[in-house]
Amino acid sequence: MPAELPVLQSATLPSDAVEVGRIGEAWGIKGWFKIVPYSADPEALLGGGNWYLQPSEKGAKSFFSGTVLLSVKQAREHSDSIVATAEEIPDRNGAEALRGARIFISRADFPKAADDEYYWVDLIGLDVLNREGVSLGVVKDLMSTGPQTTLVLSQEVSGDKPVERMIPFVSAFVDKVDIEGRRITVDWQPDY
């Protein structure tokens, strides 16, 4: 007799949804599953609550399509990974059926960042200007380089391919981050 698939409620992906990881293999026999987080600090995943799932973009096809809601009962760190369990997943077969699903969380459900701390997702797209008001580009990515994070900027130059700059995201170079104003002010010159 084939295993029953979990019943998942269809949902609309929130406009502020952020993809934070994917579901890995089943863990144990009681419906727990491993998570592959996209961040070295998966605090948003550990809060539990509502996760929005979408099928994997590659690999095996999921048993569901579109966006579905998963009501997470508990998520916690275990050894070197994250494990979770949800209301809709009663057993190992249900957990295996979710393997590869992409996990999204509403940005509004992220834990509040401490003063002078920022989620990378909030920095992407911000304009970067130096102290003289000269535009250095827009944050297109961030890169962890061991002891520090580096802003990766892209700036369109008329007729040429975009200029890419990297600026260490440390207080020695970053004067101010204004999330509401969508700008970062830095002590940096265009010819560095």
Automatic annotation (TrEMBL):
Residues in RimM N-terminal domain copies: 20-108
Pfam families xrefs: PRC_RimM, RimM
Main location (coarse class): cytoplasm
Domain of life the protein comes from: Bacteria
Keywords on record: Chaperone, Cytoplasm, Ribosome biogenesis, rRNA processing
Subcellular location(s) of the protein: Cytoplasm
GO biological process, one term: rRNA processing
Domain Ribosome maturation factor RimM PRC barrel: 120-191
A molecular function GO annotation: ribosome binding
Gene Ontology CC: cytoplasm; ribosome
Function: An accessory protein needed during the final step in the assembly of 30S ribosomal subunit, possibly for assembly of the head region. Essential for efficient processing of 16S rRNA. May be needed both before and after RbfA during the maturation of 16S rRNA. It has affinity for free ribosomal 30S subunits but not for 70S ribosomes.
Comment on protein domains: The PRC barrel domain binds ribosomal protein uS19.
NCBIfam families to which the protein is assigned, alphabetical: 16S_RimM
Assembly: Binds ribosomal protein uS19.
Family listed: Belongs to the RimM family.
This protein's name: Ribosome maturation factor RimM
Lineage: Bacteria, Pseudomonadati, Pseudomonadota, Betaproteobacteria, Burkholderiales
